[in-house]
């Protein structure tokens, strides 16, 4: 366990333009805003080492192998060697890694200015555009046939096609946001046009049956982000169609009905609800997100900040001792709890969110990468005497391999926040912030957590000012 600490530093400097939100269509007042990944650079230390290992892996993954099942599904030739594990051509969630890969490349580019990686991801986006065109005029794009969606709608068994589509939407959106790839947004909007045609034929009752039967990831977050980027109200309405009533209605009443639920299905849906709150300012959405966070963090998380046992919440609140085993705290769940926590921190800048973020990041993300190979963990076993198990580079591609690619590309997104002339330093990670809006650079030098004491070496470069601790 690492020490839980928050340093809130106040920078006295000239007033700057108050940021209105990441994409500019948010309706709520934020108490803290993140910086662009492009404004933060990691300095030497364990976080940068993890990031560099993931950057190497992103370069090593072959583009044609990643595209193989997309091309085959579109009837295009491909002689690439198929990937293994969950990306095998016969596995129903094939293609999910593509979305994570694009997100990771986009964030890695923003974090490092690695032009070669951006160029590689840009080519993949163009190739996906060819696959979408070859699949017809509907806008459908995937590595599996559209009949999988037929099976979702007819309530027949299939392994999470909407979960996979969410990753692809998110990857394309990240390529647009972080790399300025306009074609990526165009492809995502064409997919959304296809999605709308299908959703318009489904009534509310049947939609809820679909959601209850099949994991759908953060589809509501993807459409909320498309609305934020384009202003098209259709997308916000489509986002709400993916809200799962079984999840949200008890939470809105302040009831914990989480027992037996699948954790990595649940958290992304609440992230989508939280995003809807930012864009539509409905108080109910805020209540759902905040109550959910409080229950998971205070009553269903281990001391490491992780949650879940064998992918589910298997007990009543505060009954964790009996849950310790080989398959505790799926890494995807930590990834998603950190995303939600980051959102909630921006709403009110409360220390409890920053404290949790630090605890979970150090104990349950930083520790999940193999320092020799750069490969990543699925579960973090918390029973005594257990061992760590990492993915194979080309033959695993678990869900946590996907979120693992993203985890180590975006450490810079939650070290610093700001609000006008106030700077929040939330994490002791060696880094440099280029606060262009204030004309200053902040350099944080620390060996934490390898050294247990933070030496407060925070240097302010540029404009005259001071930091309070
Ligand atoms: Zn996972």
Question: Would you write up a description of this structure?
Answer:
- There is one protein chain.
- This protein is an alpha+beta fold and 469 residues long.
- The protein has a domain at 61-242.
- The chain has helices spanning 46-60, 63-73, 96-112, 115-134, 147-153, 161-179, 182-200, 204-213, 219-230, 233-241, 245-252, 263-280, 283-299, 331-348, 351-364, 399-407, and strands at residues 7-9, 33-34, 40-42, 416-419, 422-425, 431-435, 440-445, 457-462.
- It has a 4-stranded antiparallel β-sheet, with no helix packed on it. The protein has a 4-stranded antiparallel β-sheet with strand order 3-6-7-8, with no helix packed on it.
- Strand 4 and strand 5 (422-425) form a beta hairpin.
- Helix 9 packs parallel to helix 12 (263-280) and helix 11 (245-252) crosses helix 13.
- The chain is globular, with a radius of gyration of 21 Å.
- Zinc ion is lined by residues 264, 330-332, 378, 398-400.
Q: Topology, pairings included?
A:
Blueprint: E1 7-9, E2 33-34, E3 40-42, H1 46-60, H2 63-73, H3 96-112, H4 115-134, H5 147-153, H6 161-179, H7 182-200, H8 204-213, H9 219-230, H10 233-241, H11 245-252, H12 263-280, H13 283-299, H14 331-348, H15 351-364, H16 399-407, E4 416-419, E5 422-425, E6 431-435, E7 440-445, E8 457-462
Helix pairs in contact: 2-4, 3-4, 3-6, 3-16, 6-7, 6-9, 9-10, 9-12, 11-13, 12-13, 12-14, 14-15
The structure holds zinc ion.
